[in-house]
Amino acid sequence: MVKTSEELELMRVSGRLLASVFEMLDTVDLAGLSTMQINDLVERFIREDCAARPASKGQYGYEYVLNCSINEVVCHGVPSDHVIVRDGDIINLDITLEKNGFIADSSKTYLVGNVSPQGRRIARVAQDAMWAGIRAVRPGAHLGDVGYAIEKHAKKNNCTVVRDYCGHGIGREMHEEPQVLNHGRPGRGLPARRHDLHDRADGQSGPRGHAHARRWLDGCDPRRKTLRPVRTYRGGDGGWRRSADPEAGRDGTRLAQCAAYALSYMRGRG
């Protein structure tokens, strides 16, 4: 978990290369592309321009170099020839690469074209929650302070955090300790370090909300589950009821309910 100064320098190299991948994507008009076309573009860039290895490909049997999560998909969306990025979509691209034995893992959220005000708001809240967590990192702080700051900002803006997923350490392995939660109690947990924070916020437009994602199998291989947050309400029998539309957010009218990653990515910082 704790890296030497030499290891940190090698990690910065990987981080700078991954930042260049997103800088390349910044110049691409995503509207009209399939998510598989984006995957193939990123793979060529990592291999040819970065002279690096796409670290996600082959990890846990995964066949692609990135995850692409559109609108209501919280994370880990799978590239497809049949999923086309449309005007008004919010798409998160989660990308990794390995160079000199060290892995960089980050993501960036793109607002494509005419995104609704609700969609822009949830993306902004998620980004600001990330920075609230980063500002909590200081000598003597704990990971619980980081998670607390993230959730506090989300709740202040009538949102919830997704509790089913978290940040993580990284190095020679894709997933290392510690886990970095999007919620926590001040003063609890390990002493905080400046980890890569990927925050997920779930818009909550009514008096009740539920902070957990729901699995929608949609006929996919179990390793390729599409995970979507859904608004839920408690029924008269005390059980949670689902209130969601699989196409929510496509027309920009319900994006305030959808998950969005923070608009951030690693720039090779220690």
The counted number of beta strands is 12
Strand content: 15-25%
> Which structural class do the helices and strands define?
alpha+beta
In whole angstroms, the N-to-C terminal distance is 14 Å
- The average pLDDT is 77
| Strand arrangement across the biggest beta sheet | 1-2-3
Please mark out the parts with pLDDT under 50 across 5 or more consecutive residues, or reply none. 204-210, 215-270
Write down the overall geometry. globular
Please provide a written account of the structure.
The structure is a single chain. 26% of the residues lie in helices and 22% in strands. It has helices at residues 5-26, 35-49, 117-135, 143-156, and strands at residues 66-70, 90-99, 102-111, 159-161, 167-169, 176-180, 200-203, 213-216, 226-229, 231-234, 240-243, 259-261. Helix 3 (117-135) runs antiparallel to helix 4. It is built from four helices and twelve strands. Strands 1-2-3 form a three-stranded antiparallel sheet, sandwiched between helices. With 270 residues, it is α+β, with helices and mostly antiparallel strands. Strand 10 (231-234) and strand 11 (240-243) form a beta hairpin.
